[in-house]
């Protein structure tokens, strides 16, 4: 089931200077740690002048939509999908 | 005087035009973002409520019979495991911009036709010398590697835009087809007239009236017969198009700005429509001013739940650019509507555009004061976000008039490209 929400979340993001990539590698949500296995898509949007970085990522059994506010560097979890239809 | 019509043969030039169509665009992008949706029936709908309109089913949903335009409840009855998602325009615009950037590495003649369709002319480009089919294969591979491995495009190659688009529609998803001098007759033989882009019921009736029932009949018809069918220059355009000659490489300038909103629940009373009308005006007004325009005309359109339609445009005494003036004109137009029926879609637009600098100055500086105020409000909204400062009447409109991608439009995409630069 896909659930929309808006909650602060802890995210580890790694910048690899050799590959020139930056991507979340770990999410801590609801007391559990999830290792990110795949970045499905990355895009950005602006609200006013504030730039938001959106990472659509998948752990083993869960999908997360993680949004980084580049003004304050806070992460928000906006969507979670447990892999089930609906 | 009699004019002798010259019989035109099929364009013998090697095909250089490529049409790319991102298959099931919105749904595929959602499946790209969320790997758990891949291989499953997914539909992006304007609203995920049962009455919401499906705007993009995934390949898997299409295989289950789900089609564009169906209601969510109908889609779910055909495919109970259907996952329905609301649109995420920013995600789709990001894919559009990434595709555009990738295609511009092949030629500077890249023309977006909609959010999920591009036309490239590779004539003289290094990729063309390597071969069109090889270039198309390389583009498909690069899209999977550089933008998203779940994204598939159907590519059509032809001597003109029309045949390239027709070729792209021959095999979906992930097709790669060419129509040229060597095979166009075979292709026409297996297509219905309505398979051709631009021929729907109205034109079909016109063609049937001239004894044209198949795509091949259409091709074989001479110019005089096509002119008789369409009763306009359109007959000559079709005569050229079907023979691979380019007549669609036309760029139309911006002639209007507009915003519309399909109401989630029926509203009949104009009083209830006014806050939404104002929100549409505020959204449109900011776009008009950002692009440096003013407008002489304001237009309001109402599509009712019974699918009847009422609209009216009015040219103003002075050019308008301020939301208050556009809104006042729109309210006046709406007040002239004689019907009180449940409204499905409300739309407002500005037409007869003039560049802001060329508009006549007002005698007492009223327009200049309004302009400064509008500019100040726009700057605050640009800094802190859309609708930070709004007219009080707009309070309570909340989630109404959300961000949307215009169907088949490219003008709005130009604004997205400008914003990304």
TrEMBL record, chain A:
Specify the domain of life of the species encoding this protein: Bacteria
Protein name as annotated: Uncharacterized protein
According to its UniProt entry, this protein's organism is Candidatus Amesbacteria bacterium GW2011_GWA2_47_11
Automatic annotation (TrEMBL), chain B:
Domain UmuC residue range list:
17-200
Q: Which UniProt keywords apply?
A: DNA-directed DNA polymerase, Nucleotidyltransferase, Transferase
InterPro entries hit by this protein? DNA/RNA_pol_sf (IPR043502), DNA_pol_Y-fam_lit_finger_sf (IPR036775), DNA_pol_Y-fam_little_finger (IPR017961), DNA_polymerase-Y (IPR050116), DNApol_IV (IPR022880), Rev_trsase/Diguanyl_cyclase (IPR043128), UmuC (IPR001126)
Q: Which GO terms describe its molecular function?
A: damaged DNA binding; DNA-directed DNA polymerase activity
Q: Which GO terms describe its cellular component?
A: cytosol
Q: SUPFAM superfamilies from the entry?
A: DNA/RNA polymerases, Lesion bypass DNA polymerase (Y-family), little finger domain
The keyword Signal appears for this protein: no
Q: Name one GO biological process term.
A: SOS response
Q: Where is the signal peptide?
A: none
Q: What protein family is recorded?
A: Belongs to the DNA polymerase type-Y family.
Q: What is this protein called?
A: DNA-directed DNA polymerase
| Origin organism lineage | Bacteria, Candidatus Amesiibacteriota
């Amino acid at each position: 089931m896909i659930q929309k929400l808006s909650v602060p979340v802890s995210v580890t993001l790694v910048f690899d200077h050799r590959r020139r990539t930056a991507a979340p590698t770990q999410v801590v949500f609801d007391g559990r740690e999830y290792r990110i296995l795949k970045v499905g898509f990355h895009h950005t949007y602006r609200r006013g002048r504030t730039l938001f970085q959106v990472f659509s990522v998948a752990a083993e059994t869960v999908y997360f939509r993680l949004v980084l506010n580049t003004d304050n560097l806070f992460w928000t979890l906006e969507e979670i999908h447990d892999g089930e239809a609906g | 005087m009699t004019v002798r019509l010259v019989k035109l043969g099929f364009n013998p030039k090697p095909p250089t035009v490529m049409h790319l169509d991102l298959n099931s665009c919105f749904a595929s992008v959602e499946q790209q973002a969320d790997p758990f949706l891949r291989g499953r029936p997914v539909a992006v709908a304007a609203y995920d409520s049962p009455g919401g309109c499906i705007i993009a089913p995934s390949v898997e949903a299409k295989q289950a019979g789900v089609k564009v335009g169906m209601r969510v409840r109908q889609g779910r009855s055909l495919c109970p495991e259907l996952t329905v998602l609301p649109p995420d325009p920013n995600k789709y615009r990001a894919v559009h911009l990434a595709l555009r950037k990738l295609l511009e590495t092949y030629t500077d003649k890249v023309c977006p036709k909609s959010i999920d369709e591009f036309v490239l002319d590779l004539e003289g480009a290094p990729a063309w010398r390597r071969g069109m089919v090889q270039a198309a294969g390389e583009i498909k591979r690069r899209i999977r590697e550089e933008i998203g491995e779940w994204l598939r495009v159907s590519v059509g190659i032809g001597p003109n835009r029309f045949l390239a688009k027709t070729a792209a529609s021959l095999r979906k998803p992930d097709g790669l087809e060419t129509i040229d001098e060597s095979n166009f007759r075979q292709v026409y033989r297996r297509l219905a007239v309505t398979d051709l882009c631009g021929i729907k019921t109205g034109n079909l009736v016109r063609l049937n009236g001239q004894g044209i029932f198949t795509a091949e009949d259409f091709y074989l018809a001479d110019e005089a017969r096509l002119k008789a069918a369409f009763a306009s220059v359109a007959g000559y355009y079709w005569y050229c198009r079907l023979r691979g000659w380019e007549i669609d490489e036309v760029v139309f300038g911006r002639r209007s700005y507009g915003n519309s909103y399909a109401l989630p629940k029926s509203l009949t009373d104009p009083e209830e429509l006014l806050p939404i009308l104002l929100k549409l005006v505020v959204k449109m007004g900011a776009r008009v001013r950002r692009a440096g325009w003013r407008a002489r005309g304001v237009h309001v359109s109402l599509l009712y739940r019974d699918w009847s339609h009422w609209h009216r445009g009015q040219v103003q005494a002075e050019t308008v650019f301020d939301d208050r003036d556009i809104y006042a004109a729109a309210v006046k137009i709406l007040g002239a509507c004689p019907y009180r029926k449940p409204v499905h879609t409300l739309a407002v637009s500005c037409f007869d555009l003039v560049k802001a600098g060329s508009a006549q100055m007002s005698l007492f500086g009223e327009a200049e004061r309004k302009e400064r105020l509008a500019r100040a409000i726009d700057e605050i909204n640009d800094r802190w976000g859309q609708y930070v400062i709004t007219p009080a009447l707009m309070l309570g409109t909340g989630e109404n008039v959300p961000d949307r991608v215009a169907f088949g439009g490219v003008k709005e995409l130009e604004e997205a490209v400008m914003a990304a630069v």
